[in-house]
Amino acid sequence: MREVATSPGTDSVAALPNLESIIRGLLYVYIFSLPFNRLLFIERNGFIILLILLVLWCVVNRRHFFTRTPIDVPLVAFVAWVAVTIPFATFPAYSAKEFAKLLQQGLIYYVVMYFFKDGPHRIRLLSLLVGVLILVSAYGVTQFDIHDRQAVVSFFPGEVWLTTYLVMFIPLCFALALCEERPWPKALYVSVSVLAVACLLLTQSRAALVAFVCELWVLAWLIKQRTILVVASMFSLALVVAAVFVVQVGTMAQGVPSVVPQASVPIRTDLSSVVHRLDIWAFSLSQIVTHPIVGIGYGNETFKLRYGHTPEEVPPGHSPVRNQGTHNIFLNLALHVGLPGLMLFLWLAARMAHTALAAFRQVTDPVSKAVLLGTGVSVIGMGVRLMFDQMFVGTLAIQFWILVAMAMLAHSTADRTQAQRV
């Protein structure tokens, strides 16, 4: 009698028939918990459980789950360079701990790539991300207080976390609204987009508004629809008017009362934060020159740990800078892992954006098209947003890699479509 050949996958199904479903279910819970500050215990403990299940999966299947993606080379190169800088760090133990978080982000990226490669699972994950965006935006809108500019934080620990999250996911919702052809889903995505933009505006974050306007213009350039062009023009005009107003109000002479009480102004009019950032950037640049190759050590807190306790002369009207971070992702990387690390990260970001936007023009499936477009625009918008606050950290970084993983999965759809045409 002829023996029936069995594969490792068949053996695993026989041994643990629900293992992949358990891993995928845990990932749903894990991803859902990321934007909620009070659910951080799920993220921390869930990741440990996920690691155990992944090891078990590899043992049962006798193989790994890592798959080839278009961004592998720059991603591995960047991670490898960060590892090289750890022995030269000011605080090697702390940098090694932060490096472990970077490995966690990369692992989540590849896990999502493998366990959500099937179409139905990708649709469910996309629905989960949109649903969470609705919760975060709706709750943020309810927190608006015209007398308290820091009130709108939603479920995040602070306003800067919320605005970074919105800048990351609003392009995805916009793209879904643009690419969807069915009436009811399209109306839903339009409504969610309006809600998320309203929440972003109510945070009164100037940096987030600049990033959002840049995203609108990138969308207008790619889509070439009159509606997007009009919206981008309106927001740009509003941004220019607001900038002029902020400069006029923020630079008024002391003792001269404002025509409009500052508490009732719907945007921030003080320029102290702008001056403070310029001081921080000037100091960061001066330190990059002295540590150009391997930097001072990976991790956001390295800046404060190294410079925070050193005395500094603070000019009148300015604030201390040595107890702050760099407030700029590019200066952060140049200072912490050296100029080679910055170049590798820029290569990685450029590869992500180019891969997503190039595939966007090839794929025909509306969902894949929207994911590719939204992710490509999000990478550009995040680059602008992170120029003012280095928030590519913690759960925000993990959510970004989940979004990139979905784009790379959609890219595989574009590859299959191209192969069928050939």
Structural notes for this entry:
Helices cover about 70% and strands about 0% of the residues. It is globular, with a radius of gyration of 23 Å. The protein has about 425 residues and is mostly helical. The chain has 15 helices and no strands. The two termini are about 40 Å apart. The chain has helices at about 10-15, 20-35, 40-60, 70-85, 90-115, 120-140, 160-180, 185-200, 205-225, 225-250, 270-290, 300-305, 330-360, 365-385, 395-420. α9 (about 205-225) packs antiparallel against α14. The longest helix is centred in the last third of the chain and has 32 residues, at about 330-360. The model is unreliable at about 1-15 and about 255-265 (pLDDT under 50).
DSSP strand tally: 0
Rounded Rg: 23 Å
Number of helices: 15
Largest sheet: none
Low-confidence residue ranges: 1-15, 253-265
Order of helices and strands: HHHHHHHHHHHHHHH
Shape descriptor reads: globular
Q: How far is the N terminus from the C terminus?
A: 42 Å
Strand content: under 5%
Mean pLDDT: 88
Structural class designation: mainly alpha
Fraction in helix: over 70%
Multimeric status of the protein: single chain
